[in-house]
Every structure is written in structure tokens, then in C-alpha cells.
Amino acid sequence: MVGQDDFVIHFFLTDKLKENVEIEISDAHIANEIIFTLSAETKDEVNNWAKEVLNAGGEIISKPKEFGEGYYGFVFADPDGHKFNVFYM
Fold first, then answer.
1. Model pTM score
2. Cα 6 to chain center, whole Å?
3. What is the DSSP letter of 58?
4. Is 32 left (phi over 0), alpha (psi -120 to 50) or beta?
5. For the structural domain made of 14-88, what CATH number should be given?
6. Which residues lie closer than 8 Å to 8 by C-beta, 6 or more apart?
7. Given this model, what pLDDT does residue 8 score?
8. Which residues, other chains included, contact 50 with Cβ-Cβ below 8 Å and sequence gap of 6+?
9. pLDDT per residue over 67-89, tens digit each?
10. What would the pLDDT profile of 17-39 be if each residue is shown by its tens digit?
11. Quick one: which of 39, 65, 63 has its CA closest to 51?
12. Annotated domain spans of the chain
């Protein structure tokens, strides 16, 4: 559970997911099914997230930077290739 409202994100191992669904599972390293955006309170928090992602084995796809007026963030992939944004807005 994440955040004040206990938002739930489930991550399933590929072999367990394949056993229980009747659809093709895409390879997240080469395709995007969805990109989650996580909200940060400050630019420093964004930068700290980037450090933690690297420490946890994630890959930084786009380093922390300004994305137009009022947006600062970065994009990363978890070890399975799922993509996430972390933005301060």
C-alpha cells in the first residue's frame, strides 16, 4: 500500500501471472504497457528517489531534470523493465 489513501500496486512474478491469465504478457524491457507516476514534494525528494532507485537495482531511463515549466522529475525502470515517473509538480 502506498500513500495516504493506501493505493495498492500489485507486482506478480511472470511465471505466476502466465499461469493465471489467458493473454500474452509483453516484455516490459521493449514495450510499455503503462507508466506509473509517483509524486514528490520537492526537487530534493526527486533526487533522493533517483539515488534509491539505483541502490535498489533499478535503471534510470531519464535523469532528473526540468520537464517544462513547473515540472521536475525522472523516469526509471524496475529490474523487470516496468517504467515509472517520479515528478515534482
1. 0.69
2. 17
3. -
4. beta
5. 3.10.180.10
6. 1, 2
7. 67
8. 60, 63, 64, 74, 76, 86
9. 878 889 999 988 888 888 999 98
10. 777 777 677 787 787 777 788 89
11. 63
12. 14-88
Cell 521536475 sits at which residue?
A: 72
Residue 89 identity (one-letter amino acid)? M
Q: Tell me how far apart the alpha carbons of residues 66 and 81 are, in angstroms, rounded to a whole number.
A: 23
What pLDDT score does 10 carry?
Answer: 67
Q: Of all helices (H) and strands (E), which one includes residue 62? A: strand 59-66
Q: How many whole angstroms separate alpha carbon 64 and alpha carbon 53? A: 12
Q: How many residues appear in the chain?
A: 89
- Edge-first strand order for the sheet with 72-77 is 35-40, 83-88, 72-77, 59-66
